[in-house]
TrEMBL record:
<feature type="domain" description="Ketosynthase family 3 (KS3)">
    <location>
        <begin position="1"/>
        <end position="419"/>
    </location>
</feature>
<dbReference type="InterPro" id="IPR014031">
    <property type="entry name" value="Ketoacyl_synth_C"/>
</dbReference>
<keyword id="KW-0012">Acyltransferase</keyword>
<dbReference type="InterPro" id="IPR000794">
    <property type="entry name" value="Beta-ketoacyl_synthase"/>
</dbReference>
<protein>
    <recommendedName>
        <fullName>3-oxoacyl-[acyl-carrier-protein] synthase 1</fullName>
        <ecNumber>2.3.1.41</ecNumber>
    </recommendedName>
</protein>
<keyword id="KW-0963">Cytoplasm</keyword>
<dbReference type="GO" id="GO:0005829">
    <property type="term" value="C:cytosol"/>
</dbReference>
<keyword id="KW-0808">Transferase</keyword>
<dbReference type="InterPro" id="IPR020841">
    <property type="entry name" value="PKS_Beta-ketoAc_synthase_dom"/>
</dbReference>
<dbReference type="Pfam" id="PF02801">
    <property type="entry name" value="Ketoacyl-synt_C"/>
</dbReference>
<dbReference type="GO" id="GO:0006633">
    <property type="term" value="P:fatty acid biosynthetic process"/>
</dbReference>
<comment type="similarity">
    <text>Belongs to the thiolase-like superfamily. Beta-ketoacyl-ACP synthases family.</text>
</comment>
<dbReference type="Pfam" id="PF00109">
    <property type="entry name" value="ketoacyl-synt"/>
</dbReference>
<dbReference type="InterPro" id="IPR014030">
    <property type="entry name" value="Ketoacyl_synth_N"/>
</dbReference>
<comment type="subunit">
    <text>Homodimer.</text>
</comment>
<dbReference type="GO" id="GO:0004315">
    <property type="term" value="F:3-oxoacyl-[acyl-carrier-protein] synthase activity"/>
</dbReference>
<dbReference type="InterPro" id="IPR016039">
    <property type="entry name" value="Thiolase-like"/>
</dbReference>
């Protein structure tokens, strides 16, 4: 069963909606900015990537009643992205009488509704429990985003949420692909979201893995693959994709962005050089190779990589793992880019936001450029020819794109996208 992508949606720090996001990727527009709230709270890193949600965005996606008491940024981001992807696929919400039994949702998150949790705790401690409102549970349960999307769209197939740290979004796509492959669904809305704010980002600031020297220069702060990378910039947002069986997409005349050719998930078991915060290199290489095997590809067929590449000391290790897994180096190495230089690290949302960016390269016939890495790490230069890491967007017609994500807990996910060509 072949699986294709027929819809995309995004809510990113550098662009809410596909049009804005695509423009930012083409021209290297960064969505990272200084946040006074973080400075007031004494954070070392006072910058972040946060989607700019306007009143128009809210009015266009939520009724006045739905907006009342809505205090979950991740749910807002996820619904905006998911609804856009559904509409982009030419699909509409079901009527009130019955659901679409053949369509479902797998939409992941890390922590949902942190601000709502804080508000709820304050009300409970103040003996004002009755003021919590009827949506506090929906906004704070992990599956709130998938349940909300499923209910708004009227979907009757599997409705669930996955959570695997920074690998969440990429894993969600693989899970959706597998459900369609097994003929248990015809359409799956997949993606992931992440809350924004100090209660999400504080733990990382305490770990001292965020850059602190760029508070006055946020556009230069996220520096994947750079010799002067100083840590990842925290971000938030959501990405969404509509996956569909090829037969179903063709029968309804859907526009097809790309084919989902295969994917794999695994864990390094926090053994060897793996830990809670660092991936086991063998695990990463096995995951990439398993994705290739699932897609029935050889190592030479990948021509573009969208890496995890968070702007930490592990970037050079990631490049080494790609090189070893593919058996390719120098000018033979594929083009590689990272979306994080423009949006920061969107945590649980990162894989889905970056997957949308990856797939857009087929439509635009481009490889999006990399920012802030004109001083490439010397260990990376030993593996990859400088021409394979474009600093600006280049015209190119990709055929096979590999997207990988590696998360806390030493968990890995890799997926292969293929340019769609009608038989």
């Amino acid at each position: 069963m072949r699986v294709v992508i027929t819809g995309l949606g995004v809510c990113a720090p550098n662009g809410v909606g596909l049009t804005n996001f695509t423009h930012s990727l083409k021209y290297g527009i960064c969505g990272i900015s200084f946040h006074q709230e973080l400075a007031d709270l004494g954070f070392g890193c006072q910058i972040a990537g946060k989607p700019e949600i306007t009143d128009f965005d809210m009015d266009n996606n939520f009724t006045p009643l739905e907006r009342k008491g809505l205090n979950s940024s991740g749910l807002v981001y996820g619904f905006i992205a998911g609804a856009e992807a559904w509409a982009d696929a030419g699909l509409k919400p079901m009527g009130k009488d019955k659901p679409d039994w053949d369509s479902g949702v797998i939409f992941g998150t890390g922590i949902l509704g942190t601000d709502k949790f804080r508000e709820s705790i304050h009300l409970i401690d103040s003996k004002k429990t009755r003021r919590l409102g009827s949506t506090s549970v929906m906004q704070t349960m992990a599956s709130g985003i998938s349940a909300y999307l499923g209910g708004k769209l009227g979907l009757g197939n599997q409705i669930t949420t996955n959570s695997s740290a920074c690998a969440t979004g990429t894993e969600a796509i693989i899970l959706g692909m597998e459900r369609i492959r097994s003929r248990k669904a015809k359409i799956m809305l997949v993606g992931s979201c992440s809350d924004s704010g100090p209660y999400i980002w504080g733990g990382f600031d305490a770990m001292r893995i965020l850059p602190t020297q760029y508070n006055s220069d946020p556009l230069r702060a996220s520096r994947p693959m750079s010799a002067t990378a100083a840590g990842f910039v925290p971000g938030s947002g959501a990405g969404a994709l509509v996956l569909e069986s090829l037969d179903h997409a063709m029968a309804r005349g859907a526009t097809i962005y790309a084919e989902v050719l295969g994917g794999a998930v695994n864990s390094g078991g926090q053994r060897g050089n793996g830990s809670m915060t660092a991936p086991n290199s063998e695990g990463v290489q096995r995951c990439i190779q398993a994705a290739l095997s699932d897609a029935n590809l050889n190592k030479n067929e990948i021509d573009v990589i969208n890496g995890h590449l968070t702007a930490t000391s592990k970037d050079a290790d990631e490049i080494s793992n790609w090189s070893k897994a593919l058996g390719r180096s120098g000018k033979d190495f594929p083009y590689i880019n990272t979306t994080k230089s423009l949006v920061g690290h969107c945590l649980a949302a990162s894989g889905s936001v970056e997957a949308v960016a990856s797939v857009l390269q087929f439509k635009e016939e481009m490889v999006f450029g990399n920012s802030n890495c004109d001083d490439l790490h010397p260990e990376i230069l030993k593996r990859v020819d400088v021409t394979k890491i474009p600093l600006k967007t280049i015209s190119y017609n990709p055929n096979m794109i590999a997207k990988a994500s590696f998360g806390f807990g030493d968990v890995n996910a890799c997926i292969i996208f293929k340019a769609y060509k009608p038989d």
